Structures are given as C-alpha cells and as structure tokens.
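Take a look at the protein record below with the fold in mind.
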Amino acid sequence: MNLQSEIQYFGELTAPNQARLLTLFLHELSVEARGTYGPQPDQVVDGARLRFIVEIVTRLTRFIEQLLSDDHNRPQDEVLLRMLLAPRGDKTAERLVLNAYRRAIQGFDSNDTTVTMTTR
C-alpha cells in the first residue's frame, strides 16, 4: 500500500464520501475487534489491541462529526491517514488496521452518488 497515494485519493473525495469511507472502515475495524474478546462478556483475550481499536474509533468518530459539520479545526486529511496507515511497531495492530482499511476500500465505490436530502 502506498501511503502517499492513499492520502491523495482520500483528499480528492468529497466530505460526504470521506465520511462514507471512514464509516466503512469503522465497520471493518469493528469486525477485526471481535478477535480481541471471547464468547463471555468478561473474556477479553487481547486487551491491548481492544484498547487500541477503541482509541481509533474514538478519533475517527470525532473526525467524521467535524467533517460533516464543516469544522475547519479538524485534523488535516494527511494527518488522519498517517495516523491510520503509517507503519507501527506493533505489527499485529498494524495488520488489524490495514486489513480493515483494505476491505473498506474494496467495498467503497466513489462513483456512487451521495444524495443530500433537503426540505422545501
């Protein structure tokens, strides 16, 4: 994966499409998170990775809210993508993120029309 081309691609998307892509990524990341806990509610088998995923979810949901409300104080696109896709010391965490991102990109069709409903 070429980080710079991913940054460029993301930056060329409209705000609604950026939000759609990040929402798909969050869904895929939640699928990855399922591997961090067992069948019982109190069975966390990989607390460090679960905490890592929760941190990413927290940051991304805030970014999406800022994006949709046109908050210009949000992090730059490049900062966000580097936070997600840059190499990590924890290779398992890196793999979780990259797997989720690849599936999100594959499921994302930027040619889809994003419709904004307005009332008259």
In short: The radius of gyration is 15 Å. The chain has one domain: 3-107. Residues 3-107 form one domain.
